[in-house]
Structures are given as C-alpha cells and as structure tokens.
Design goal:
It is built from 3 helices and 25 strands. The chain is mainly beta. The strands form 7 sheets. Strands 12, 13, 14, 15, 16, 19, 22 and 23 form an 8-stranded mixed beta sheet that branches. Strands 1, 2, 3, 7 and 8 form a 5-stranded antiparallel beta sheet that branches. It has a 4-stranded antiparallel beta sheet with strand order 6-5-9-11, with no helix packed on it. A hairpin with a 4-residue loop joins strand 12 and strand 13. The two termini are 54 Å apart.
Length: 426
C-alpha cells in the first residue's frame, strides 16, 4: 500500500459540523468522533501482576476523530483525514515503553436519502491509507457510489503499546506485557448529485405560510401543500335559500379537501434523468389541502345555497356565482359584507360546488355543451395558478369568454374534469 504524508494535505480540505437537513449545502459534511461521541469499548490486554512492569491497571486509551474532508460530486470520490490520539499505559521501572502501533479500519458503511435515516447497506469502496510520517494519522479514501445521499461511515482504530525490559534490577518481573486500546466513531458524509442531475425536478421547497412544495424521496412524490381556511356566508337572494347550519358546515369541511384533491389525482410523472444519482426515477405530482383556522392561510368564502347570489363586494352589491381572485403565488383579495367586514377573501364558492354540475349553458353546438364539472376543483385550479385553455391561444381569448373555455372543452380548467400535462408543469 502506498504511504501518504499528511503534510501534503495542508489547506486542501474543509470540513464542518453537520447542519440541519434543510440547511444542507451541496458538498461533503462530516461530524467528528471523540472520546465523548465514540460508542466503542476500550479493551486492554491483561498485564502481569506482582512486578514493577507495565502496571496492573492497563490504563491505555484511544480516541478517534476526523479533521477535514471533501467529495467530488461527479465521481463520488472522497478523502477524509482521520487521526487518533492515544494515552499510554503506566510503565514501571522495569519496562521501557515503545511508541504505539496504530491501526485503522472501516467497520460499516450505510446510506440514506435523509440525514436522519432510515439507513441501509451502502454500495461503496472505502479504504484507509496510513500516514508514514505520523502513524496516528491516516486518510479515509474511496468512492461513494450514489449521489444525493447521506453516508454513515463507522470507523475503528486501535493503538498497541509494547515494552522492553529496562536495564534496572527487576528480578521479580517475569517480563513486560503490551496494552491495546480500541475505539470507534461514526462520520456522516453527503455526496451531492452530479451537476444537472435534478434538472427535471424543478420545484423546490418554499418558506411560505400559505403553501409549500414537499419533495418526498421515500414516496417518490412532489406535493404542493396549501393551507386553506373556509369562511361560511349566508348571502342575499331574490328567492331565499336555507342558511348554513353547524351540521352542514362540518359536512362541507369534511368533503372539501378530499373532493378537490381527488380531482387532481393523476397518472403524470416528473421524470428524473439520472436514475443512478437521484433516489427516484420519477416523481408523482400531488395536491394536499390542509384545512386550518389560522390566519396564515388562503381564505375561501363558501356561500350557502345553490343558485347565484347577491353579495356586497368592496361596497357594491354584485350578483355572483363562483369566482377566484389571483392565486396563492400572487394573492389578490376582495372585501365582502358591510364595511368590508371580510377583506381577505380570494375565492368564492356556492354550497353546491362539490357536486358534479354543468358549469354553464352554452349553445348545443358548443363542445362545452352538457359537460359536467366539480366547480370547486376548477376554481381551486385558478387558486394554484392555472388558467383557462384559451389563454394559450394566439392571440389569447378574452378571459371568461366561451372561446376561452372551448379551446379544450373536456379539461378541468375548461368545462370538464380531464387533467392535462401542463397542469403539473407549474
């Protein structure tokens, strides 16, 4: 085995304390072992008794730590300097203590897509290269074969002290024994994906109280989670309809999230090109609605009844059905009620919005004629940034016009319930 001098490594490596998973930079990170963090036992050989030799306590010890390291994201090669520190045993007048012999070895390598596990056996090839100039130091080197993963590397080290009989008069000592101490420590290393591995997975976690992206590499899913608060109103109608009751409100709440989520359940996938590096070959796009009573949520007004209604909006009475203002990415709100009692509503739905109904009454010659739709799902699509299909035309259709819907009549963002690839590209 080629010997290595630690002086060659000066200023070449950097290592830092493991940050929280959300703060993990692209690069190698490693913790360090010490007497406090090493869980391995310290073992010693038995010494002779009744003589002034190595001593009967055999109190040699050793600690092991990592002092720096780096990883190549393209090849997965790593180099981590490690060092041991030994505490020599007690030697009496009859024995002259020799310098210790140090040994290092890799016990186990595990990997995980998370710094917190769960851990599984890893595909890696690691070895330890001793330092000829400083026997208590060595270099952990080799290859971590999969990118985008954390590696838990268990290392062990031992130090053995031997002794020779001194020139002193030691008639009662039969000989000088040896003392061996062993310990182990665990490093956490991270190999980033090669440059460009995740280009097809463009969504990233966002720090936002209303929505966030969650990339789950265990379930191979990318989920848009949206926090929603439902506000219930009893609007004015020419022909009155029953008001909300506590029972009806609870029923609506229990159905809202699952109905809209089911409408966006799909067979599309975000494809990962680098299946060697990325944990998943593809990711399932999903929608998750989290109902809450907190103010940090998108606020949706739910109107009792099934017919169009009159409601005061920004101080003016208007006849409405179902509507959306802005989206979770660009929030616009309106004021509802006397003196704009509610000025933070971004979407309005009727009580019947969770049922499949015909969205409008276009001419019988229209492709939208007699197509059923769950209105709440369509309007929630607007809330997460989707537009009518006519907005993709050249020139674009007038928003809300029949042409705006007829451009893709069966689509959820038109008159029907069918999903389209473009809904999940945002």
């Amino acid at each position: 085995m080629k010997e290595m001098n630690m002086s060659d490594l000066t200023n070449k490596y950097h290592i830092s304390v493991m940050p929280e998973p959300d703060e993990m930079p692209m690069g190698l990170q490693s913790g360090s072992g010490s007497a406090a963090s090493s869980s391995g036992s310290i073992e010693s050989s038995s010494g002779s008794s009744g003589c002034d030799g190595m001593g009967v306590e055999q109190d040699c010890t050793i600690t092991l730590s990592a002092s720096g390291g780096n990883a190549d994201p393209d090849t997965g090669s790593i180099e981590i300097p490690i060092s041991a520190a030994g505490s020599a045993p007690t030697a009496g007048d009859c024995c002259d203590l020799n310098e210790p012999d140090y040994s290092f070895w890799v016990i186990e390598v595990l990997s995980s897509i998370s710094a917190e596990g769960p851990w599984e056996s890893a595909d890696s090839s690691l070895s330890i290269l001793p330092d000829a100039a400083s026997p208590q130091q060595a270099l952990l080197q080799g290859t971590l074969n999969k990118g985008g993963r954390f590696y838990q590397i268990r290392l062990s080290a031992s130090a053995t002290w031997s002794a020779e009989e001194s020139d002193n008069d030691c008639e009662n000592c039969s000989g000088c024994d040896s003392c061996t101490a062993e310990t182990e420590t665990t490093l956490i290393a991270y190999r980033p994906c090669p440059s460009g591995c995740d280009k097809t997975v463009t969504v990233t976690p966002k720090l936002n109280p209303i929505y966030r992206w969650v990339i789950d590499d265990n379930a191979c899913a990318v989920t848009l989670k949206v926090r929603v608060i439902l506000i219930f109103f009893n609007p004015t109608r020419e022909i009155p309809e029953p008001d909300w009751t506590s029972t009806k409100i609870e029923n609506y709440k229990s159905m809202f999230a699952s109905t809209v989520e089911d409408a966006f359940a799909n067979n599309y996938a975000i494809i990962a090109d680098d299946i060697i590096c990325c944990p998943c070959t593809s990711y399932q796009p999903m929608l998750k609605i989290e109902l809450t009573n907190d103010e940090d949520a998108i606020q949706i007004g739910i109107m009792s009844g099934v017919s169009n209604y009159v409601i005061e909006i920004n101080g003016v009475n208007e006849s409405k059905r179902d509507w959306t203002r802005g989206s979770i990415f660009n929030i616009e709100t309106i004021g509802i009620g006397p003196n704009n009692d509610r000025s933070d509503i971004s979407m309005g739905l009727k009580e019947s919005s969770l049922e499949k109904t015909i969205k409008s009454t276009p001419p019988s010659t229209s492709p939208c004629h007699n197509i059923e739709q769950i209105i709440a799902a369509h309007e929630f699509g607007h809330l997460i940034g989707l537009e009518h299909p006519g907005q993709d035309l050249t020139p674009v259709a007038e928003p809300g016009s029949l042409a705006d819907y007829e451009a893709d009549a069966d689509g959820l963002m038109s008159c029907g319930m069918s999903l389209r690839k473009k809904y999940f590209e945002k």
